[in-house]
Amino acid sequence: MKELKSEELRALYLGFFKDHGHGVIPSASLIPENDPTVLFTTAGMHPLVPYLLGEKHPAGTRLTDVQKCVRTGDIDDVGDNSHCTFFEMLGNWSLGDYFKKEAIAWSYEFLTSEKYLGIPVEKLAVSVFEGDADAPRDEESASIWAACGIPTDKIFYLPKKNNWWGPAGITGPCGPDTEMFIDTGKPKCSENCSPACDCGKYLEIWNDVFMQYFKNAEGKFEPLKQKNVDTGMGLERTLCILTGKNSVYETDLFADARAKIESLTGKAYGESEEITKAFRIVLDHMRTATFILGDRKGVTPSNVDQGYVLRRLIRRAVRYGRQLDLPEGSLGEIASVYVEKYANVYPELVENKQKILEELAKEEQKFSRTLKSGLKEFERTVSRLQGTEIDGQTAFRLYDTFGFPVEITQELAKEKGLTVDIEGFKACFQQHQAKSAAGSEQHFKCGLADNQEATTRLHTATHLLHAALRKILSPDCAQRGSNITAERLRFDFNFGRPMTKEEITAVEAFVNEAIQAKVPVTMEEMTVEEAKAAGAIGLFESKYGDKVKVYTMGAYSKEICGGPHAENTGDLGTFVITKEQSSSSGVRRIKAELK
What we know:
The chain is built from 18 helices and 18 strands. The chain is an alpha+beta fold. Strands 1, 2, 3, 4, 5, 6, 7, 8 and 9 form a 9-stranded mixed β-sheet that branches. A 4-stranded antiparallel β-sheet has the order 12-13-18-17, covered by helices on one side.
């Protein structure tokens, strides 16, 4: 196997698929565009949803990219060998073009060829869908793998929970997948040992999803008209496997930041389990915070949505940094290392470096005050304590309200000759996790299924709202986030003060005038330079490649977007702003409906 650095792996992957006729497209923003179902871009497919559903992509029917992703569902697991909240996903797609034969053959070639990853065939194992009442056994994929050179005893048939993707909601596109694994050479844990085991013998490296069915409202699986291929290879995990490292935190992606923390603290990564865990949490959370703050869509710490997740990451980094004796005010130094590491791949980090450093400094300062409040609360708790044990509920309140990790509560308690009810704390924590999971369930679905008429109309209305804000408030107003459900739209934009009642009324009037004008919604494909020259607004980093789609609504709006849209503004109804409020520092939020 080749020992590659991150820069080499990205270039190798994109170059391979470019040579196989794929258009190389840049990473989309971490903040999803008009997708109500996720807080962040959690997979390479999210920005491509309209095209997987049949819209034409300007770069063609074969695409490849390296997509920035954030997943925070496992935030409490960060600190082990593999969990990360930010990661990069190497992906390639067929939008109704090639299917299983080509996708599998190319996966095999990239994995095994000495020109690329050079993994010995004997170290590979694959899994395919075993079949059930909904869809047949995937003998086609198995036979292609066998023809490539994978021995039949290394081809495993596994059920839906292992080898099936989707649908994202109750209905929608779905299909079998085939997954690729590295056989570590460890002995089998049992006679039935397979890639479905967690024994550590098999490490997943790549996944090819074959979207070939549509699950309808009756629960039946029908063949899709446009069959797609959606693949994903995690950059961090692949680097870890290729370099033989025990942890993703030991790859080149984290080396410079790790060295910076060591120089700031005098502590060494690996010197103890506790120190290593704290290192990993600070390394991960600061990388993720740097990317969220440095994103072109401008998220900052707040108490809602993406801003809340960002705040939690920064504060968690501060808490674990204290365990390392990380000097107060040094988060910016770690962030600067990441900006430099990723500068050539993600130039937006360099462009937004000042903002990254300022927001980190502000948040760190705020949380330092919160920690002081927590210490006072701890002292009050001890003064009221009857007995020698702090109960689990109190320990959890210190964690949840004041940001105290239970380890700090234990250390403080030990100094006073007290103990902490850890089992009681764990019970409260698990109850909190269950409530959080239930409350955020829809935020971790994919938006593939949510393409109904109501959301399409509201999406179109956001263009008119954006134009109205630029006309009535300031030409500098720009979108900072958008979230649409079937019932309402939510639109974030940069503006330094609350809107007046008169301004809200004027914005509503502008949008409704455009609706009443009943102008057609037209679309043209053009280069980014042509779009700029035509006066289109939008984020010109363009996730679409060399060409973009520009949607025009008469003289009212001209904007770069990926769709979908109504055909005529007259189809929208009556636009009503229901709320205008602060989203975060310098960012306002409008909620509106179409009646």
